Amino acid sequence: MEFSTVKRVHHYARDFPPGCGSNSPKTNQKPSEKPAESEKIPGFCSNSTAWRRSVPAVRSKPPIDDGVAVKIPQNVKGKALPGLGFDAFTERSAGDRKKEKVDEMKKSQNISRERGKVLEMVELFRKRCKEISMSGRGIRRINTVACAELRKEGKISNQSTLMIGAVPGVEVGDKFHYRVELAFVGLHKHYERDIDTMEWGGGRLATCIVASERHLDKMNDPNALVYIGEGGVLRRNKTGKPPDQELKGGNKALWNNKEENKPVRVVRGLTLDRRYGQKILYVYDGLYEVQTCIKKKGPSGNMIYEFQLTRCAGQPAVPWQSCRRYQF
After folding, report:
1. CATH code, domain with 199
2. How many domains does the chain have?
3. Residue 290 DSSP SS3
4. Residue 63 scores a pLDDT above 70
5. Least confident of 131-135, 146-150, 157-161, 276-280
6. I need a surface site. Which of 122, 146, 194, 285 has the fewest CB within 10 A?
7. CA distance 308 to 54
């Protein structure tokens, strides 16, 4: 039997060229093709057939989403990641960020709560002082009586003054009418002494001082203060030369602040002249650093300690001109 190389499709006949058609030899070989220079993959030889037709994408920095935690292998933490072109990420999970936000919220709530407590106590105290003054009871020291009554009723309580630095709830520039107010808000616990102290490392540190224009303290500079130490005052009904001040008690504590580099709270007492006489306004001026302490002869001929303090940076300024015009 002989087969013709003529293939019939329907009623047509078609002759194929030699080597083509259905009877041509089969082959699995692909046509050799060389990739273009721009399509070669780096790292392969020039005659390699492994190549890609798409242009390789330019590597860029992966986007950092603050809400997505980026996981970094343990062995590359703290090192530069190859191929990224910037330092390694600092791993911080979403739970950590949520905890930080909660802590900040609680802190702000605590500050608001302490601030509200201070304002409420001061308002109640001044209202009670006004009631006692208008009652005609003939009480001389209205402030101490009002404070004792409110403390007995449980409406105010002395906050602790045994701390170095700012007092929660008290802001720079707050104004106070009496020394009693300084005590129950936690600034200064003494009604008469001008240096408040606390125990610290076997000694004592000064927590707060009350400067006054009547005690030769130099208060002209809003960012500096020259404070005269305590002591060296004649007792009542005595005349002559005052005794020398000694480096003990509050003076020693304030000296220790300079040695330990610890700040001290400063309250400035402004003497305001009014029609009915002089009135002292106490203004919280913030934190100060004790720079130097000099022992020198005072105006009365006795030896005194002169402390030079500078205001700590980063605190709001106090409007002293408006404080001078303050109305009780």
Report:
1. 2.30.280.10
2. 1
3. strand
4. no
5. 276-280
6. 122
7. 75
**The residue type at 205:** L
pTM: 0.68
Domain extent for 293: 158-234+244-324
CA separation for the pair 188, 207 (Å, rounded)? 8
Pairing type for strands 175-176 and 224-228 reads unpaired
How would you classify the pairing of strands 224-228 and 277-297? Answer: unpaired
Residues 6+ apart with CB under 8 A from 248: none
203-212 and 175-176 strand pairing:
unpaired
Q: Categorise residue 138: left if φ over 0, alpha if ψ from -120 to 50, beta otherwise.
A: left
User: Is 271 part of a structural domain of the chain?
Assistant: yes
Residue 68 forms part of a structural domain: no
In a domain, 264, yes or no: yes
Is residue 298 included in any domain, yes or no? yes
| DSSP codes joined into one string, 173-210 | T-EESSHHHHHHTTS---SS-SEEEEEETTEEEEEEEE
Q: Which two tokens stand for residue 229?
A: 């130490």
